[in-house]
From TrEMBL, chain A:
<keyword id="KW-0007">Acetylation</keyword>
<protein>
    <recommendedName>
        <fullName>Platelet-activating factor acetylhydrolase IB subunit alpha1</fullName>
        <ecNumber>3.1.1.47</ecNumber>
    </recommendedName>
</protein>
<feature type="domain" description="SGNH hydrolase-type esterase">
    <location>
        <begin position="44"/>
        <end position="204"/>
    </location>
</feature>
<keyword id="KW-0443">Lipid metabolism</keyword>
<dbReference type="GO" id="GO:0003847">
    <property type="term" value="F:1-alkyl-2-acetylglycerophosphocholine esterase activity"/>
</dbReference>
<dbReference type="InterPro" id="IPR013830">
    <property type="entry name" value="SGNH_hydro"/>
</dbReference>
<dbReference type="Pfam" id="PF13472">
    <property type="entry name" value="Lipase_GDSL_2"/>
</dbReference>
<keyword id="KW-0442">Lipid degradation</keyword>
<comment type="subunit">
    <text>Forms a catalytic dimer which is either homodimer (alpha1/alpha1 homodimer) or heterodimer with PAFAH1B2 (alpha1/alpha2 heterodimer). Component of the cytosolic (PAF-AH (I)) heterotetrameric enzyme, which is composed of PAFAH1B1 (beta), PAFAH1B2 (alpha2) and PAFAH1B3 (alpha1) subunits. The catalytic activity of the enzyme resides in the alpha1 (PAFAH1B3) and alpha2 (PAFAH1B2) subunits, whereas the beta subunit (PAFAH1B1) has regulatory activity. Trimer formation is not essential for the catalytic activity. Interacts with VLDLR; this interaction may modulate the Reelin pathway.</text>
</comment>
Automatic annotation (TrEMBL), chain B:
<keyword id="KW-0443">Lipid metabolism</keyword>
<protein>
    <recommendedName>
        <fullName>Platelet-activating factor acetylhydrolase IB subunit alpha2</fullName>
        <ecNumber>3.1.1.47</ecNumber>
    </recommendedName>
</protein>
<keyword id="KW-0442">Lipid degradation</keyword>
<feature type="domain" description="SGNH hydrolase-type esterase">
    <location>
        <begin position="44"/>
        <end position="203"/>
    </location>
</feature>
<dbReference type="GO" id="GO:0003847">
    <property type="term" value="F:1-alkyl-2-acetylglycerophosphocholine esterase activity"/>
</dbReference>
<dbReference type="GO" id="GO:0047179">
    <property type="term" value="F:platelet-activating factor acetyltransferase activity"/>
</dbReference>
<dbReference type="GO" id="GO:0005737">
    <property type="term" value="C:cytoplasm"/>
</dbReference>
<comment type="similarity">
    <text>Belongs to the 'GDSL' lipolytic enzyme family. Platelet-activating factor acetylhydrolase IB beta/gamma subunits subfamily.</text>
</comment>
<keyword id="KW-0963">Cytoplasm</keyword>
């Protein structure tokens, strides 16, 4: 795996305020505050797929009762999540589980670089929260029909799954219930824009995830 | 009003497939297909503010019953919406009302250009659907605290307020005031990322919008009424 110094996906980088309304930093600051105010058992971290989960009924139904915090920000790539977690979003809390779902927005990076970025985040979480278990969710396929990004994401998952297999403090969880149909297509009933999940899509992803996290013996450890 | 041929925000333009998964074109193709399959009474068109609305319960509660179609596409500028409407997304349909909500993503353009782009779309809709009423939604404030984009969006809204009446069939609905608190902040309870609306945020907008749409739909033209008998 690439050394952090030469892997842009594994180099902590804040998001530039290109548009001029400071939204990314506002969200980060809000998450840091939540760390001071709350005592979560589970923290979800990642991109829009994490962030949007919080907006659907399924969050209140399945995850709120487990004392979860949601630190997803739309558009984030691995290097942005790495920066956020290095700058306060893991401070003052001691969750049992960190759910990490990121990688699909790493445009311009190779599968190896993206996997390296994800593993750098896993290492950081372990350094900051030695007692937490990190559950890394597989990056979902995207696009209506087969395309290079599906291959890239599948390769990321393979590399990450391999790298995690030797760790006891982290594990890989494939949340893809089979979104790709037999003709190679993804339905807009599952992903309304062939990337983001509908409520129906989230149901299929969240139910197994919830079962895993909510197990009484849970540190999220998979058999 | 800006001359359309000089206004970059009024030039139709598809979105380039930069990432390589063809999602923009795939969504557009689906909308074109929906025009062949459906007979909407209301058409919603715009950016992610429109697109996300369909993902919440509120859509099924308030707008599906009106036989509404949703042609929102995240990230779209006025140029992209113009292109989509000129390339199949108005074919074979005769909605009585069109809700247009776009402009917040026009980052390279001035407020005047953005307002001009929105008016150009409203004009196109009026030309293609002479009997339809166009409801233009004001651009919402964005960002947690006051910032230049809030000022820009407010300036767009002021221009729309003065330019749209010239079109006759267009009305303007702006609920911006509802979202900014006394201290100038926007709450994440209304906009989870200080741009996109939560379910609660959408409710604030949906009530007056639904009232307006119901009014429009009740004004059934004589020939429609006859065919219902």
């Amino acid at each position: 795996m690439s050394a952090e110094a030469s892997n842009p996906a594994a180099t902590p980088t804040p998001c530039e305020d290109a548009q001029g309304d400071g939204r990314w930093m506002s969200q980060h600051v809000r998450f840091v505050s939540e760390c001071k105010e709350r005592e979560p058992d589970v923290v979800f971290v990642g991109d829009s797929l994490v962030q949007l989960m919080h907006q659907f009924g399924i969050w209140r139904q399945l995850f709120s009762p487990l004392h979860c915090l949601n630190f997803g920000i739309g558009g984030d790539a691995t290097q942005h999540v790495l920066w956020r977690l290095s700058n306060g979003e893991l401070d003052n809390i001691s969750p049992k589980v960190v759910v990490l779902w990121v990688g699909t927005n790493n445009h311009g990076h190779t599968a190896e670089q993206i996997a390296g970025g994800i593993m750098a985040i896993v290492q950081l979480i372990h350094n900051k929260l030695p007692h937490a278990h990190t559950l890394v969710l597989g990056v979902l396929p995207r696009g209506r029909m087969p395309n290079p990004l599906r291959e890239r994401n599948a390769q990321v998952n393979k590399l990450v799954q391999d790298a995690l297999s030797s760790l006891s403090h982290a594990s890989f969880f494939n949340v893809d219930p089979g979104f790709v149909l037999s003709d190679g297509s993804i339905s807009h009933q599952d992903m309304y824009d062939y990337l983001h999940l509908t409520a129906h899509g989230y149901q299929a992803v969240c139910e197994p995830l919830h079962s895993l996290i909510a197990r009484p013996d849970t540190n999220g450890t998979l058999a | 009003m800006s001359g359309d041929d000089l206004n970059p925000a009024a030039v139709p333009q598809p979105v380039e497939d930069l990432h390589g998964d063809g999602r923009w074109l795939a969504q557009h193709a689906r909308f074109v297909q929906e025009c062949k399959d459906g007979e909407p009474e209301v058409l919603f068109v715009g950016d992610s503010m429109v697109q996300l609305m369909e993902q919440y319960e509120i859509w099924r509660e308030m707008f599906s019953p009106l036989h509404a179609l949703n042609f929102g596409l995240a990230g779209d500028t006025t140029c992209n919406v113009l292109w989509r409407l000129q390339n199949g997304e108005l074919q074979n349909i005769r909605p009585k009302a069109v809700v247009l909500w776009v402009g917040t993503n026009n980052h390279g353009h001035t407020a005047e250009q953005v307002a001009g782009g929105i008016v150009a779309i409203a004009q196109l809709l009026t030309n293609r659907l002479p009997k339809a009423k166009i409801v233009v939604l004001g651009l919402l404030p964005r960002g947690e605290r006051p910032n230049p984009l809030r000022e820009k969006n407010a300036a767009v809204n002021r221009l729309l307020c003065s330019w749209l009446p010239r079109l006759g069939q267009a009305s303007f609905l702006d609920v911006s005031k509802e979202f900014v608190h006394a201290d100038g902040t926007i709450s994440s309870q209304d906009m989870f990322d200080y741009l996109h609306l939560t379910s609660a945020g959408y409710r604030t907008l949906a009530k007056p919008l639904l009232d307006l749409l119901l009014q429009i739909l009740e004004e059934t033209p004589e020939d429609r009424r006859a065919s219902l008998v």
